[in-house]
Each structure stands twice: as structure tokens, then as C-alpha cells.
Amino acid sequence: MTESQNTDLGAARWRQLVACIIAMLAVANLQYAWTLFTTDLTRSLNASLKAVQWTLTFFVIAQTGLFPINAYLVERFGPRIIVALASALVGVGWIGAGLANSLPALYVSYSIGGIGAGAVYSATIGIAMKWFPDRRGLCVGMVAGSYGFGTALTVYPIEHMIKSSGYQSAFIFWGAIQGIVVLIAAQFLRMPPASWAPANWEAIKAKVQRKVQQSSRDYTPQEMLRSGSFYMLYLMMTLVTASGLMMVGQLKPICVTYGFDKYALFGGFTVLTLTLLLNQVLNGSARPFFGWVSDHLGRYDTMAMVFILEAVAITALAIFVNHPIWFVALSGLMFFAWGDIYSLFPAAIADIFGSKHSTTNYGIQYTSKGLGSILALPGAAWLEGATGSWLPVFWTAVGCNIIAAALAVLWLKPRVARLIKQQAAAIQNEDATARTQEAVVQTVTAK
After folding, report:
1. Rounded CA gap, 341 and 309, in Å?
2. CATH label of the domain that carries residue 9
């Protein structure tokens, strides 16, 4: 590849990033606006909260369980065609939910939406990981952040439509819009050529390695699955994902418990509406922010720092949950700390196991979100029903974050350091062997 071609592609990657962000903005509501519909669904379908919350669990399982397959299809056929097909599933997910008159129909519709959202997510995160090895934490965070931030743009009009026209109309109208936006964004998506690297990549790579340890080889998914580091990352992401999804899915039921769904604060906005707005802004902005921090501080120290911050925020929330202003502020802080996982974990997967198979490798890692959703949604609803309080749910989330923080710095960080050191030593030995063989050949030739 010529230098001019490399430069042209280097400029084009920023257009790719914008298209990824738009696509992710469009699918954010499927997860983060779900809580707005839960109370109306329990009444309309005459179902318990626990039964309704299985809908989002099935969505997350469909999104994450098929994530590795979606990632493989993206690498095999390219992101444009896969995301274009996914746009139809994204639209059907919410339109079908609006037409559903039973729990099974709701489950199926939302699961279809989950497949579409997972395909969009895998394609756009994969694009960011491969186009930006020099700014992996920041750019993956920007794409993942748009998935967190998207609902902040639509929460008020969706909530208003639910109140004025009913939740069915909101599902159908916004489902159609989301599908169309994803379809348009898909037309601009593509992966970089296999031989492409940023300009002056070797010099940049040496600088990056001083801050963030990156693998010198590419691991296939099969090789990754034989690594203990992968399973530790998987456990950590399950624990922390569960703590955040608990608030994502249960926010409105929690607000209803404490009367915050109708408690007006600034500008006539209810505590629920303000909390959703603040949560999504902070959740979205946290992903590029902590991705950037991790590019400079290191992945695992950043993980430990924010997991502890989330544990502190949830502890304070449990203490001051009855106070509306504190509820808004502390839940926002919790979401800010939680948002980092969707930039740090994909970046860590690419750091440890290389870029070549990073889309598929992170697809496998991302299935941990499905496991976490079972703990966070029906699990949390069951725990609240069994104890009559949301406090045990909060304290469980605190414990999950403390365990994950300890694993990040006490186990994963030194293990990865040893792995990278072993790889460097192996490369040096290979180079030394190659030089020796070359010298022998030259000697024999001279004779």
C-alpha cells in the first residue's frame, strides 16, 4: 500500500467513526428506554414486573448470545450488508413490541430487536477497534458511548408519546425511525484493508506500548478460549454488567416504589425523567472519557478505579435513596462509573489477543452481558420481591464491583504483563535464530 493510499484511508477512518456513532445512537433506545415501558406493560398485559423484565433479559441474551456469530459474519461479509440487514430487525423489534398482546409475543419481538442491535454493536465496535489501534480506548469509547448517550436525545419525546398516545404508538413510531437511521448509516461502513495501519504506525506503536501493553501476535478465537486471561475478563464483565443493568432495567420500578415517577423537580421534570436524562448523558460520555484515560493510565488500573467509584456511588445511593435530589445525582454518578466497561473491555480484548480477530473475540467476550442480565433483571426483581426492598439489590451490586476491582489489579494486570513479556522474549529468540541461520547461510555461500 502506497503512502498516499495510507493517508487517504487515515482520513476516511474518521468518516467511518461518525457513521458508527449514528448507527449506535439509533439502537440505544432498545435497551436504555426500556424502563419507560415496564409499568404500562405490566398493566396492559396483566403481568408481574418479574415476568415483564424477562423481555429485556431475552433482548440482552439475543443481543449477546448471537454476538460472536454476528461478529464472524461482519468479518466474513463486511459491515455494510450485515448492518443493513440488522436495520430491519431493529425496526421489527419495537414495532412488534407495540403490536404484541401477550408476553410470548413481546418476548419474541424484543428478541428479534436484540439480534439486530447485537449486529450493529458488533460491526461498529469492530470497525473502531481495527481503524484506530493508536486511539483504541478513546474511539471504541466514542462508539460505545453513543449507545449509552442515544436515549438522552429521545427520552423526553418517548415519555411524552407514551403519556399522550400510549406505549404502543411510541414503540411503533420510534421503531420505524430507528430502523431507517440504521439502514442509512450502514451504507457508509467498511473495514480497513488487512495490510492497513495508521501513518507512522511503528513509531506510534512503540509510544503506545509504554502506556498500554498490547499483544505482539494475533490470537484466534480458539486460542483465546484456552487463555485464563479471557475467563477472568469474562467474569469481571459479568459482575460489573449486572450491577449497571440492574439500574437500567429497574429504574422506573425503583422510582415508582419511592414515588419519584410523579415527583416534579426542575422545570416540571419528574425525578424519573431527570434521572434518565442525566444517566444517559453521563453513561455515554464516560465511555470515551475513560477510554482516553485508559490509553494513558493503563486498562487495568482504570478498571479498578472506576469499579470502586461505582461501588461508592451505589453505597451512597442505598443510604440516600429516599431523597429525590440525591437519587438523581448518585444514580448519575453510578452510570458514569458503569459506562466505562463498554470501552475498556473491548480495548482490553484487542490489546491482549490482537486486532486481526478482535471483532469475533470481543463478540465472544460480550456474551457475558447476557449472563449479567439474568442476575440484573429477573434476578433483581426476584430479590426485591423476596425481601420487600431494593436495598439488598444495591448491596449485591456493590459487592460485584469490589470483587471486579480486586481481580483487575491483583490478578489480571500482572498476568497480562507476564504474557506480553513472554511474547517479547519469544520474538527476540525468533529474531536471534533467524540472524544465526542467515549468518550460517552466508558463511556456507562464501566458502
Report:
1. 13
2. 1.20.1250.20
